[in-house]
Every structure is written in structure tokens, then in C-alpha cells.
Design goal:
Radius of gyration: 27 Å
CATH topology of the largest domain: Potassium Channel Kv1.1, Chain A
Strand content: 5-15%
Oligomer: single chain
Distance between the termini: 17 Å
Helix content: 55-70%
Structural class: alpha/beta
CATH architecture of the largest domain: 2-Layer Sandwich
Strand order of the largest sheet: 7-6-9-8
Low-confidence stretches: 89-98
Number of helices: 26
Shape: globular
Largest sheet: 4 strands, mixed
């Protein structure tokens, strides 16, 4: 199983394999073996600094003054690893990996792919996306609608009249995209006036606080939580919805449809989207747009690309759009399995994980076999582990289910040219959980139940 391979890779120091198991196979980092060891403990014990560093960055638990923390610290093979563990607070707060959403926003700003606005300031050009600017700043929204609306395609927008430096204007745009401001305070008064004029009073207040505390500094960085600016991108999501979904649209008076450059038609509904989000967040749509598949056409009168798809439910697509624009979505339990299938088709790994989490929170004796099959179908190993662990805990009830007996037979039939050492996958996983979990009582009785079932099904495993 994947978790066994994770233990082995951490012991060997195979960082590339550890990355694959964590990022592609979604293996739980804090899983334990029968000796109560974790992947992090073995990486420390065997002296693999890079693996230890990676595990810590990605959520491996090693809190100070806990059994796990002390065990890792005293078992660490090298002083370098011991120092890394002692400075765990520094590691987790300063070196934490960017999540995919933050990385998307940073990349959208730095590469300016699919940009439709180009500013010039002090002779330097900066590309940007009108949809993001309009969503984040009412001043930008009004200027894009009025002052700059009639500009010809490719025409530069001069920002020199605002008397702000090129470096600080670029820093301001980066803040609009990412919530991170790297500020040079050499022309701070002009900059404060500029951002206040564009409606960022809260940022002015924060900068003034920092200036009082850091009078001798010539530059500093301010980083805001994602939730601080996600509400603006939520407005952009709302503006993309068709009129039919007025219960959503009534929540916002922001009109971002005129900045739309991509129409996605599903059945009789047209979503007025923004390519910077759709292409940047979804590999499926990026492939459609970049590879010019037959589903994409360009409407000459508006120069807006259009994608027409027939196999996606518009009601489900609302969830997809909300995830793409904001990285979060509230999912109705009745829709979760259909949404999981759609997220898998659109290659939205993060949304698959969110769906998987919701499904895993609602396991029951009646649905656990079905969910196990779903987990296997969509390659969700963490959910598969949850299912087999649930089966092990509730084995007395599960073993009576016809569906459970069917999946045992199915797994047995998938073994080709069975040897004495072959095992039935679902039975093997359940045995593992019974043997290793402290949650499961009366383990000997559960092993007897398994043997009785295998005897009834005339299987030997």
C-alpha cells in the first residue's frame, strides 16, 4: 500500500518518491506503523535532512513538548536535523510552501499571461488583467469603464500623473493580486496618497503602523491573509453567472461581465468568465484554449472566445466556478459525488480533495462499500484508507452487507495466478487497521469474523 511505500521512501531518503506519494497520491503524512513510528520519525532517524524539511513544510506533526516531537529530536541522526526541529516555528511560518491558489495568483501577476491592460510608468511597462483590477479596486473599475474604455487595443495607459515610482506601483499591483506588499519607503508620502486614492485605506493604516515600529528600515513586507481579498474574487465569480441564478447575483452589485473574455455555454446557459482564472486554475480549460480544440470558437464581433460543452450540468458548474475563483466552496451533500466526478474530469485536484473530505465525514455502514469503490475509481487513497478503517471499526455490521461480500469477491478475482503470498486487497487493509489501531477493540474477535467470511466465500487469504 502507498503508506508502506511512504515509510520505506522516508527511510531511504527518496525525496522524489515522497513528493509523488504526498502530492499525487495524497498519502496521509502523519500515519503510524505498528511501532507507533511516523514517516517524519524515520526520516530523522536515518538522517535525511531534505526529506525531513519537506515533511515539515507539508504538515508533518512535530510539536515541541510532545511525544512525537521529543522522539524525532532525540532520534535525529545529525545536528543539522536537530537544529531544524528546534527551529520548527521558524520553518513553519517562514518556509511554508505556497498553496496552489496563492501560486496561481503569484504566477498570474509575474507572467501576466492573457493580460489585456498595459501600464507605462517612468518609461517602464507593466501588464495586468482588467478583471482582477476591477474586482479589487472601485477606482480601477471606474477608470476601466470610463477613462480608459475607448483606448485602442494594445494602447498603453500612462500612470505618471499619479507621481508614484515604478517600483512601488509594481509592488501595489502585486499586492492587488497576492495580498503581499514589498514596499520601498523612499517615496512613501506619494505612495500613501496614491493607494488611498484607489480605495485601500486599510493598507494605508497598516503601512503607517509599520513605519512607526520600523523607523530605520528603508523597505519592508506586509502579507495579508487570503481571506482578506478572496471576497473581491468572489464578486468576480458572481458576475460570471447567468441571469437564471439571480439568487447568487443579488448578493453583489459588482458587474464584471463586461471584463469577461471567455463565454462557456452549458446547455442553454452562458457563463461570462475570465480567462486569467479559467485557464490559470484549470488545466482542462487551459488545454482547450491553448490547443484550439474544436469546442473553442472566437466570436468576431466581440473577440471573446467561446466554449460550448454538452456534458456538464450548469448547476454543478457553479461549484466549479466558485472553486476556481475563490479556492473554497460549500458543497451540498446531495451533489458531492456528481461534483467529485466532474472535478476529476476537469483535473481539479484540490476540489477533488474537498469533495473527498466531505464524503469521508459522512461514512455509514450502508454506504462505505460504495464510497470505497468511488475512492478507487477517482484515485483517492486517503478516502480509501478512511473506508477500510471504518470497515475495520464496524466490522460486525459491515461483514453482513451483501455489497461487502461482493467487493471481497471482486478483489479476490482480480488476483491473477494467485500464489500463497497473495492477499485480497480489502481484507489485507482491514487486517492492517485491526492490528495497528487503538480505536478498534476486541481485535481477536474481528480476525475470527474475517476468517469466517473467507470460509463462507470459499477463499483463502
Amino acid at each position: 500500500m502507498d503508506k508502506h511505500e511512504l515509510f520505506s521512501s522516508c527511510k531511504k531518503g527518496d525525496l522524489s518518491r515522497v513528493r509523488y506519494l504526498v502530492e499525487q497520491k495524497d498519502v496521509e503524512l502523519n500515519v503510524r506503523d505498528k511501532w507507533d513510528g511516523t514517516p517524519l520519525y524515520y526520516a530523522c532517524l536515518c538522517g535525511h535532512y531534505k526529506v525531513v524539511h519537506y515533511l515539515l513544510q507539508n504538515g508533518a506533526k512535530c510539536d515541541a513538548n510532545t511525544f512525537d516531537g521529543e522522539r524525532c529530536l532525540y532520534g535525529a541522526l545529525t545536528r543539522k536535523i536537530k537544529n531544524l526541529l528546534r527551529n520548527l516555528k521558524v520553518v513553519t511560518s517562514k518556509i511554508m510552501s505556497r498553496d496552489h491558489y496563492s501560486e496561481f495568483l503569484r504566477r498570474a501577476f509575474e507572467t501576466a499571461e492573457i493580460s489585456d491592460v498595459c501600464f507605462v510608468i517612468q518609461g517602464e511597462k507593466i501588464n495586468a488583467h482588467s478583471s482582477i483590477l476591477a474586482a479589487r479596486s472601485e477606482k480601477f473599475l471606474n477608470m476601466l469603464k470610463e477613462n480608459w474604455k475607448l483606448r485602442t487595443e494594445g494602447e498603453l495607459i500612462s500612470m505618471d500623473k499619479f507621481y508614484v515610482s515604478y517600483s512601488n506601483f509594481k509592488a501595489f499591483l502585486k499586492y492587488i493580486y497576492t495580498g503581499v506588499l514589498d514596499l520601498d519607503i523612499s517615496d512613501i508620502e506619494a505612495f500613501l496618497h496614491f493607494i488611498n486614492d484607489f480605495g485601500f485605506n486599510n493598507l494605508v493604516i497598516e503601512i503607517e503602523k509599520r513605519l512607526k515600529r520600523k523607523r530605520k528600515r528603508t523597505s519592508f513586507t506586509i502579507e495579508f491573509n487570503q481571506e482578506f481579498y478572496k471576497k473581491d474574487f468572489y464578486k468576480l465569480f458572481l458576475s460570471a453567472l447567468p441571469k437564471k441564478y439571480k439568487e447568487y447575483n443579488s448578493m453583489s452589485d459588482f458587474d464584471g461581465a463586461e471584463f469577461a473574455d471567455l463565454h462557456i455555454q452549458l446547455q442553454d446557459q452562458v457563463f461570462a468568465c475570465h480567462k486569467v482564472f479559467i485557464s490559470g486554475r484549470c488545466e482542462y480549460f487551459k488545454a482547450l484554449l491553448l490547443d484550439h480544440f474544436s469546442e473553442v470558437e472566437e466570436r468576431a464581433e466581440s473577440k471573446i472566445h467561446a466554449i460550448k460543452l454538452t456534458d456538464i450540468n450548469p448547476d454543478l458548474f457553479i461549484y466549479i466556478l466558485q472553486y476556481i475563483y475563490t479556492n473554497t466552496v460549500e458543497i451540498n451533500r446531495d451533489d458531492v459525488l456528481d461534483l467529485l466526478s466532474l472535478a476529476d474530469m476537469l483535473i481539479l485536484t484540490g476540489l477533488k480533495k474537498q469533495c473527498s473530505t466531505l464524503v469521508g465525514e459522512n461514512l455509514s455502514v450502508d454506504n462505505v462499500v460504495e464510497i470505497l469503490q468511488v475512492a478507487r475509481l477517482y484515485n483517492l487513497p486517503r478516502l480509501e484508507t478512511q473506508c477500510t478503517e471504518y470497515m475495520a471499526i464496524h466490522l460486525e455490521e459491515v461483514v453482513q452487507q451483501p455489497a461487502f461480500k461482493s467487493i471481497v469477491l471482486q478483489d479476490a478475482n482480480e488476483i491473477q495466478e494467485r500464489q500463497e503470498t497473495d492477499t485480497i486487497a480489502v481484507i489485507d487493509d482491514i487486517r492492517y487497521h485491526i492490528a495497528s489501531s487503538t480505536k478498534i477493540c476486541f481485535s481477536s474477535r474481528k480476525f475470527v469474523l474475517i476468517e469466517s467470511l473467507l470460509e463462507e466465500l470459499k477463499l483463502d487469504a
